[in-house]
């Protein structure tokens, strides 16, 4: 059996077993290719070069065992392989942190945040950093900045430490543990990136097993998904320089976001998942936010 035939067979097996995607891949073929190439120790981005190679029986058995493990445990592929990729950059991953897939990585890599920055941009905060992926991508995108990366979870920060060291960025990224912006006391930033927990409770109740394998702290945002974001938007202006901006991911929670912040002046940043999942707020927009907001449902 060739590599491509093996991937197609594994893809069919994953589909038939009804596993869920969305934690690094979006479909059965890509998930199968990831697991097969990883198990065969072949480059994940080099399928074209190896697809006609024959796979021997020993390696076939090893691949089938991995696919069956994926199906029987419903562990996401990244937890089985210990690695995930974002914007072509590899990150160490384990069950202590959510699997990196933030849409903020797209405007960051494509340069669509740069219009709000300047040659004086120096300090960036990645709030809710998880495994540190956005902090690492920010440090790579803007070589002149230093980055603070904060999270409530000591477990997630332990994985972030692995990634900061892996990418040799310890001199430019500092990790902080704490609850929201309290983790950085009174520091101010030119840019705050934040992919917070924002999944509303009814979506949490319906999560597939693969997503329940991730830390609930990383996902659950309360009844309407806005618990963390309400606190953040009330406090963020205090932590921004006069021209500073906040870039925030809200995923599919636009209706809840609009209900919670009906008067907010929002700039939406387009992503591959849609034009209303990542937004930018200037300090002026945050300052204009009324002190009394609609209550959560
Ligand atoms: C959606 S994950 C984002 C992780 C990472 N930035 C990424 O994009 O992959 C949200 C993160 O927020 C953290 N978190 C949850 N509540 C928090 C809080 N009150 N203060 C700080 N971090 C919090 C979780 O531990 C988790 O790592």
UniProtKB/TrEMBL annotation:
A GO CC term attached to the entry: cytosol
GO biological process: methylation
Xref: InterPro entries: DNA_methylase_N6_adenine_CS (IPR002052), HemK-like (IPR004556), Ribosome_uL3_MTase (IPR017127), SAM-dependent_MTases_sf (IPR029063), Small_mtfrase_dom (IPR007848)
Superkingdom of source: Bacteria
Pfam families: MTS
UniProt entry tagged with the keyword Ubl conjugation: no
A molecular-function term among this protein's GO annotations: nucleic acid binding
Domain Methyltransferase small: 120-204
Keywords, ordered alphabetically: Methyltransferase, Ribonucleoprotein, Ribosomal protein, S-adenosyl-L-methionine, Transferase
NCBIfam families: hemK_fam, L3_gln_methyl
Classification via PANTHER family: 50S RIBOSOMAL PROTEIN L3 GLUTAMINE METHYLTRANSFERASE (PTHR47806), RIBOSOMAL PROTEIN UL3 GLUTAMINE METHYLTRANSFERASE (PTHR47806:SF1)
Entry protein name: 50S ribosomal protein L3 glutamine methyltransferase
Species, as recorded: Pseudaquabacterium pictum
């Amino acid at each position: 059996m060739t590599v491509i035939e093996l991937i197609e067979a594994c893809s069919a097996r994953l589909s038939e077993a009804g596993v869920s995607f969305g934690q690094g891949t979006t479909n059965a073929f890509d998930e199968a290719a990831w697991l097969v190439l990883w198990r065969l120790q072949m480059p994940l981005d080099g399928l074209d070069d190896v697809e006609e190679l024959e796979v021997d029986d020993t390696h076939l058995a090893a691949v089938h065992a991995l696919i069956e493990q994926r199906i029987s445990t419903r562990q996401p592929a990244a937890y089985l392989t210990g690695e995930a990729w974002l914007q072509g950059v590899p990150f160490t991953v384990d069950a202590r942190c959510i699997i990196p897939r933030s849409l903020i990585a797209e405007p960051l890599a494509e340069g669509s945040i740069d219009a709000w920055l300047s040659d004086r941009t120096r300090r960036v905060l990645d709030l809710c950093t998880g495994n540190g992926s956005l902090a690492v991508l920010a440090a790579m995108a803007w070589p002149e900045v230093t980055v603070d990366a904060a999270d409530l979870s000591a477990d997630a920060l332990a994985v972030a430490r692995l990634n900061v060291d892996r990418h040799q960025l310890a001199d430019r990224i500092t990790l902080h543990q704490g609850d929201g912006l309290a983790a950085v006391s009174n520091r101010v930033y030119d840019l705050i990136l934040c992919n917070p927990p924002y999944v509303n409770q009814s979506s949490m109740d319906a999560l597939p097993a693969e997503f329940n394998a991730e830390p609930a702290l990383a996902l659950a945002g309360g009844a309407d998904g806005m618990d963390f974001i309400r606190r953040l938007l009330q406090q963020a202006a205090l932590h921004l320089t006069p021209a500073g901006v906040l870039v925030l991911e809200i995923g599919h929670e636009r209706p809840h976001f609009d209900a919670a912040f009906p008067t907010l002046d929002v700039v939406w940043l387009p992503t591959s998942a849609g034009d209303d999942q990542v937004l930018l707020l200037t300090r002026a927009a945050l300052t204009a936010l009324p002190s009394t907001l609609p209550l959560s449902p």
